[in-house]
Amino acid sequence: MSSNYQLWMTGNGSSEKLRFPVHPERIDITRGSINDTLKITGVGEVTVIQKPAADRVKFSSFFPGADFPGIQVGSARNPMRYVKQLNKWKDSAKPCRLVSTACGLCGYYTIENFTYYEMGGDVGTIYYSLDLKLYRAVTIRKVTIQTETATATVPSEQKEERVDDTVRPKTYTVKKGDCLWNIAQRFYGAGAK
């Protein structure tokens, strides 16, 4: 039996695909927030609206060990194949694409938790639950640092300090592991600047 409703996950640039053979009874979609609250004397509690938290998607179902009328793919396949694929994607530290034709879900998610187990009386069938979190790509911005040239006069009776004649770059590309404090320390001599 097949329907227009389908639930898929793809990984590795969509070269690896997994269609869930049995639809979950329910899919929980959580859209939270990470707003800040402040307590202001004479006003009370004030909410400062921030960007939304990453959406969470949770669902549970099973990978059947044998064919039955509710299966959404041609026939039951080895349930451990699904488990191995999901574990591979979780361990890859890369997001997977989740597509649900009924819920309107279509995006990249990380596998936060993957729980699976087998029950007595239904040997070969693997029950599972998935907890996914929306993935947002982070891009590194190029930071341009402008330096000011400072001049100083030294009285003739003092010993002259060695001159720093190194040319400091006017632009700097942020690299993995950099932080603004260290960049300011390097270019301005003080992290607070």
Number of helical regions: 2
DSSP E strands, number: 11
User: What is the strand arrangement across the widest sheet?
Assistant: 2-1-7-8-9-6-3
Strand content: 25-35%
Low-confidence regions = 162-167
Tell me the structural class: mainly beta
What is the N-to-C succession of helices and strands? EEEEEEHEEEEEH
Tell me the major beta sheet.
7 strands, antiparallel
How much helix, percentage-wise, in residues?
10-25%
* Average residue-wise pLDDT: 83
Concise overview:
This protein is mainly beta and 193 residues long. 11% of the residues lie in helices and 33% in strands.
How would you describe this structure to a colleague?
The chain has 193 residues and is mainly beta. It has two helices and eleven strands; from the N terminus they run ββββββαβββββα. It is 11% helix and 33% strand. The strands form three sheets. It has a seven-stranded antiparallel β-sheet with strand order 2-1-7-8-9-6-3. A hairpin with a 3-residue loop joins strand 4 and strand 5. The longest helix is centred in the middle third of the chain and has 13 residues. About 3% of the residues have low confidence.
